[in-house]
Amino acid sequence: MLRKKLIAGNWKMNGLVREGTELAAAVAAGVKSESLNDKCDFLVCPPFTLLSIVGEALKGSGVALGAQDAHFAEKGAHTGDVSPVMLKDIGCSYVILGHSERRADHGETSALVAKKAAAAYKSGLKAVICIGETLAEREAGKTLDVCVAQIEESVPAEADADNTVVAYEPVWAIGTGKTPTPADVEEVHAAVRNALAQKLGQDIADKIRILYGGSVKPGNAKDFLSLADVDGALIGGASLKAEDFLNIARAVC
Ligand code: 13P
Question: How far apart are CA 211 and CA 208, in angstroms?
């Protein structure tokens, strides 16, 4: 089963116009000049304020543009929110949904994430649906149960390999420099693919990309991305430096 790897950067709430433009330009230039997207797909997800300008910088590079959240409605009285139609209109092809920071900071539930994903599909956006256990859940031995339940509840029935990417991001590994072992990651990804098969059928599940996220760096990227069910990375901190992001890609693409 050939799944092209996806190397995705989540800039989170970082970057002003100048540094965002420079970072996007450097990523675009690196990917293009080294033809890195022959072997991998690329995605950059800046904050809303930089989408337009980063989209310009990425043009013609083969690096896709994504947002970090979207509302489920197309438009209307939702102060402070941004709709998937707006994101599509501005040049996004992806949107990250259900990141653990949104689940924690904004109380997003898996049911809400599924609703947002279904709305994203309707607007022609692909959803990167995030799941992952907390440290307490891992220590209680509940990792697989939590991740499987999040898949069941966060992934809509309309999901397929073209409109959906799943990202497994253990909450305790995000921004901490701590990571699960490759064997741990392999076990969770296999369970996630199995849960996707239960929900969507084996054929679709075999084609959906499952990314690992959580303290991915140039030095450890290969350890995770060479595992059977790991189809790319969702990178936070290391995506804020073009050389780190590109070195992760160079290690695996
Ligand atoms: P870090 O790579 O900074 O650990 O962040 C991972 C993440 O949350 C990506 O969405």
Answer: 10
Task: State how far the alpha carbon of 116 is from the alpha carbons of 75, 96, 113, in Å.
Answer: 13, 10, 5
Given a cut of 80, whether residue 1 has pLDDT beyond it is: no
CA 215 to ligand 1: nearest atom: 4
Residue whose CA is at the smallest distance from ligand 1 atom 9: 236
Say if residue 198's pLDDT is above 80. yes
What residues flank ligand 1, with Cβ below 6 Å?
Answer: 10, 99, 169, 174-175, 213-216, 234-238
Domains within the chain, CATH numbers bracketed: 5-252 (3.20.20.70)
CA Rg value for the chain: 17
Residue 180 tokens, joined: 């699960």
The answer to whether 120 and 95 are in contact (CB under 8 A) is: yes
Q: Which two tokens stand for residue 142?
A: 């509940």
Strand partners, 165: 128, 209
Asked whether the whole model's pTM tops 0.85, one would answer: yes
Residue 63 three-state SS: strand
